[in-house]
């Protein structure tokens, strides 16, 4: 989907060793009828459930997940979002980049080390399967005896999602059609896999009473039972297909302490703005009136969905109240959907925690400006970067690069910046007639330091600029700064935060704004691939092969 932005990166690092435990999981992936918001539809499940099981591990553990693809007519791949895959790039789970997909009926085993504690997630990385229900949480704890810089009594994971009633096949067909058919706003917002759709609003009411049933126990609100006077760590993550969200707990402040696996200088918020692919840890004190329960809510921001998508609702259940006791007051109203200022302010406020600052290199070896544009290419609506819409080759990049199969993808690298960037009107509907598609990649020198400036512009709709989350596979990056308007290469770098920037793997680019990143060593085409250190990769397992020209390297 157009707003599901994935920044693909092949990172090839040296193997590290760790004496730690092994966590084994065996997953059967298949379609089942589910009613997460009371509307019955096919969803992709893991061992019969969506969201899938939470992966629990400790820093240094090896995680082994044996995945059997029970989707009769679809390929499959699973990405371990935020896991750096040091020594195991072939387990990143990005079909077309690091592996061939898992074919229907086949079993594939992912093996990787969780080298850093924190909050992460996993999701499907083939087509649009993620929004069909294949996602879940990853919780990596510190080794026994090692303390964190904050205290809490209990640890919980909450994953947020938006939910569509149309199948991913219908949506993909519309997005790839002439004329273009937009998917619209989601029907529901899910909190830990549960929501509530108003069945009376069905466009074409069904004669089947099970098609939409608000009494179905599957769509009872998610209830989190808490003990008064205790402190809870909530690990919040988002896997939305389209929506930027505001997360709020009625009557309770939240203290942000972790973002994407890195400790944050604590900030107190009433609502947490969270973008697809981001993870946060917040602390809440159970210190309100104990005789009642409280609402947990999610609301869409950045898009005018007030009339189409109701808030996500869950219940904070104060023990010993009955968990189904409805809070006596209305849910809190969400933020104004188009008020960018508080969202930008929160992004800027997220800094590395004192005592846990990893200082970035003082300067970079290369700067790449990536301008998000929306284009017509051969009559199709496509998202592009520097007027190039990204496509995947039939042969995954990892094997192609390792085996010197240079002919399987375009060898002409994309531009480091649009040639007319300084004069480009980011506020207007620009006729980008020179837009094209390509599967070319950026080549980076190993151990070099690279700045990436992500620039948002107007879409093909007048007075419209979207919020875009960008994710970097296999690396964390320093977030050096945010700005409004067009990036000024002469003056804006002087404002970079080089003292205590947070490190993240996913970051938002706000409407008509820019975000600057530094690092060392996607349905409709918005994405790029970077290649570095291929010579450091060991022998590639044959299990990831079998598509394109990798068939020649597949061993039985």
From TrEMBL:
Residues 1-20 form the signal peptide. Pfam families: Cu-oxidase (PF00394), Cu-oxidase_2 (PF07731), Cu-oxidase_3 (PF07732). The keyword Glycoprotein applies. It comes from the Eukaryota. Residues 29-140, 157-320, 423-524 form the Plastocyanin-like domain. The keyword Transferase does not apply. InterPro entries: Cu-oxidase-like_N, Cu-oxidase_2nd, Cu-oxidase_C, Cu-oxidase_fam, Cupredoxin, CuRO_3_AAO, L-ascorbate_oxidase_pln. Keywords: Disulfide bond, Glycoprotein, Signal. Belongs to the multicopper oxidase family. PANTHER family: L-ASCORBATE OXIDASE, MULTI-COPPER OXIDASE. This is L-ascorbate oxidase. It comes from Eucalyptus globulus.
């Amino acid at each position: 989907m157009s707003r599901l932005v994935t920044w693909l990166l092949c990172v090839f690092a040296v193997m590290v060793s760790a004496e730690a435990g092994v966590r084994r999981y065996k997953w059967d992936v298949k379609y089942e009828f589910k009613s997460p918001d009371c509307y019955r539809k096919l969803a992709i499940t893991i061992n019969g459930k969506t969201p899938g099981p939470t992966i629990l591990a400790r820093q240094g553990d090896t995680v082994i997940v044996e995945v059997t693809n029970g989707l009769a007519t679809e390929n499959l791949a699973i990405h371990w979002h935020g896991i750096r895959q040091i020594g195991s790039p072939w387990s990143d789970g990005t079909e077309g980049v690091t592996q061939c997909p898992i074919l229907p009926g086949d079993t594939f085993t992912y093996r990787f080390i969780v080298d850093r504690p924190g909050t992460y997630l996993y999701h499907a990385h083939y087509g649009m399967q993620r929004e069909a229900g294949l996602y879940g949480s990853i919780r990596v704890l510190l080794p026994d005896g090692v303390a964190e810089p904050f205290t809490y009594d209990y640890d919980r994971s909450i994953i947020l999602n938006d939910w569509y009633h149309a199948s991913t096949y219908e949506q993909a067909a519309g997005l790839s059609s002439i004329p273009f058919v937009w998917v619209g706003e989601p029907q529901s917002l899910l909190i830990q896999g549960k929501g509530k759709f108003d069945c009376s609003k069905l466009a074409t009411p069904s004669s089947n009473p099970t098609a939409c049933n608000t009494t179905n126990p599957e769509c009872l609100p998610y209830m989190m039972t808490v003990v008064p006077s205790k402190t809870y760590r909530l690990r919040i993550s988002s896997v939305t297909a389209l929506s930027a969200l505001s997360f709020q707990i009625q009557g309770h402040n939240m203290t942000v302490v972790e973002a994407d696996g890195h400790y944050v200088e604590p900030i107190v918020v009433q609502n947490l703005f969270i973008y697809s692919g981001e993870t946060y840890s917040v602390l809440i004190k159970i210190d309100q009136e104990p005789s009642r329960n409280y609402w947990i809510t999610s609301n869409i921001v950045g898009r005018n969905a007030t009339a189409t998508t109701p808030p996500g609702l869950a219940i904070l259940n104060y023990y010993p109240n009955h968990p189904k006791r409805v809070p006596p007051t209305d849910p809190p109203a969400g933020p104004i959907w188009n008020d960018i200022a508080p969202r930008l302010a929160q992004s800027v406020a997220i800094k590395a925690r004192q005592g846990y600052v990893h200082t970035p290199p003082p300067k970079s070896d290369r700067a790449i400006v990536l301008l998000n544009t929306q284009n017509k290419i051969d009559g199709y609506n496509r998202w592009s970067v520097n007027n190039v819409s990204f496509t995947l080759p039939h042969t995954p990049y990892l094997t192609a690069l390792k085996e010197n199969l240079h002919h399987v993808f375009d060898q002409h690298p994309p531009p480091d910046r649009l040639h007319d960037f300084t004069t480009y009107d980011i506020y207007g509907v620009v006729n980008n007639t020179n837009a094209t598609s390509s599967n070319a990649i950026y080549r980076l020198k190993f151990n070099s330091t690279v700045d990436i400036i992500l620039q948002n512009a107007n879409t093909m709709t007048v007075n419209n600029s979207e919020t875009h989350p960008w994710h970097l596979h296999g690396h964390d990056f320093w977030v050096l700064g945010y700005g409004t308007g067009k990036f000024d290469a002469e003056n804006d770098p002087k404002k970079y935060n080089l003292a205590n920037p947070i490190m993240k793997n996913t970051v938002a680019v706000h409407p008509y704004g820019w975000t600057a990143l530094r690092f060392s060593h996607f349905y409709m085409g918005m994405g790029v691939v970077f290649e570095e250190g291929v010579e450091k990769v060991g022998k590639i397992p044959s299990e990831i092969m079998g598509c394109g020209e990798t068939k020649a390297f597949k061993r039985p």
